[in-house]
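Notes from hallway chat w/ T.B., transcribed later so I don't forget. T.B. wanted the structure written out for a chain they're using in a teaching module, and asked if we could keep both sequence and structure tokens in one place. Agreed to drop them here.
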Amino acid sequence: MENITQQADEQLSRAELERLERLAEQTAEAKPWIPEGAGDTLAGVVLSWETGHKRDEPKTECAVLVLRTSEGNRAFYTWHAQARYKLIAPKEALGEDRTGESVPPTSRLARVGDFVAIAYRGKSTMDDGNEAASYNVAIERPQPALDDDAPAAAEKPAGDGGIPF
């Protein structure tokens, strides 16, 4: 078996090996992120959206954002409404949907491949007198790579300036 693995390693390019390492990282168990106080921030690249449960209440579900961070894979549970409204969809689109199932992952505010930063601001008092967790969220979608074979938009054809007659 070692001989086959060694042969496979010899046949894979450096880029392929790096790609396999990235894939292996994505399968690593994500540790839950629990902010300790106002100002704590979680930042990373979105790997997936999953559904999570409370330990004591398996029937209670919420959407879980899994990020690849500098500290490994981290899971952000969207128990707090404000987090759902900033990561999945606005309040009007979600209503009481705690899992985000009503919004497909490809239509959510934070999507696979996006760079996301979540800063916990602490708890604030709402108009009804209840306290609620507050977050600042920044989402940056990576630009699609340009096809090396396609001419750049700024390039002009040689010769007649592109006039067809």
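Follow-up for T.B.: Helices lie at 2-11, 14-26, 81-87, 91-94. Might be a good example for the class.
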